[in-house]
Amino acid sequence: MLVLGSSIATPGLYQPTLDSIYASLRHSSIYTASTFETWWTVLVYAIIEVSYTYRFGHNPQLRLANHKEDGTLSSTPKPIPRMLRPKNRFREGLIYIGPLLLLDHTLIKKYAGVSVHEMALSGNYHTPSLSKNIHGTFLAPTLRNFTLASPVQTRRALPVAAPTSRDLVVELATSFFIYDALFFGFHLALHHPFFASVHSRHHNHHEINPQITNQLDIFERLGLVLLANFSLNIIGSHVLTRTVFVVVFVWLLVDIHSGMDLEWGYDKILPRGWASGSKRHSVHHRVGNKYYEPFFNWWDDAYERLRKKGIKEG
Predict the structure, then answer these.
(1) What is the distance between the alpha carbons of residues 278 and 291, in angstroms, rounded to a whole number?
(2) What do you get for the CA distance between the two ends of the chain, in Å?
(3) 108 near 114, Cβ under 8 Å?
(4) Which of 57, 167, 185, 311 has minimal Cβ neighbours within 10 Å of its Cβ?
(5) 136 compared with 86, residue with greater pLDDT
(6) For 177-215, what is each residue's pLDDT tens digit?
(7) Is 281 within 8 Å of 67 (Cβ atoms)?
């Protein structure tokens, strides 16, 4: 909390470090690749989810399924649910990566702080006549100018300057607040009978565990990714904010699906009553008719109050 507070109050303290890190990234061919964010997300997910899965399998006392209603530990631990080994998850990874790589190789990346001219050049538009209809807003997607000499999108234009630590922290907090609200509505809609076949795959398990995080229908997975991108883009987040966002976002998603009561769960870090956490989300997976919000409690609590009020008035 001290670091977060000082990042906002005294951004100059961290600026030399941020400038140095971002300058290195900006001149890296890996970081400027159009596919960077897709592969970065896959790498971060693999590291975080595998570490959670290992702990889930080797610590029965942490598993929520082995806890009684009063929170005490059951004397007879339940058997570990069937989970896939990493070598058997190639198809799952391909289904996730495929659509995103297609977008990475066909659409121009549009980030705050980048001129339309630089965006156009990254998309193989080298003359004013070709680039005159390109708009800088992410709300107007632009296909790459495909040619035989340059058939796919391979790089992304990045802003020149690094963000301040204040900008980074504020953009992260704001984007998570927006995503949490948007996904609450999206998730609530997925529980409508019309979308039952889409969302049922995510709830098809005997015990919630870290691997359930990515057990999604392709429509739901794309919705999750698009909402996260919208939440970042609508406030003009810096590309470095996006890079940090991926790490926190994946950690939170895996944490709420961990099926464990961890001593360092984010719900124990934030002020009491703010975070949903793994316990609350496991209840959602068990009953399915409440707790739709992914990370926080505000929208769920408001929805429950309105629902109960409606029942009383009815």
Answers:
(1) 11
(2) 45
(3) no
(4) 311
(5) 136
(6) 999 999 999 999 999 999 888 999 999 999 999 999 999
(7) no
Q: How many CB atoms lie within 10 A of CB 157?
A: 22
Contact (CB, 8 A) for 107 and 86? no
Give the DSSP per-residue string, the chain. -HHHHHHHH-GGGTHHHHHHHHHHHHT-TTTTBTTHHHHHHHHHHHHHHHHHHHHHHH-GGGBGGGB-TTSPBPSSPPPPPP---GGG-HHHHHHHHHHHHHHHHHB----TT--HHHHHHHTT--SHHHHTT--SSTTS--B----SSS-S--B----SSPPPHHHHHHHHHHHHHHHHHHHHHHHHHHTSGGGHHHHGGGG--SS--GGGGG---HHHHHHHHHHHHHHHHTTT--HHHHHHHHHHHHHHHHHHTS-B--TT-HHHHSPTTTB-HHHHHHHHHHH-SS---SSBSHHHHHHHHHHHHHHHH-
pTM exceeding 0.85: yes
Q: Which residue has the tokens 């631990």?
A: 77
Nearest-CA neighbor of 278 among 142, 291, 32, 45?
291
CB atoms within 10 A of CB 196: 11
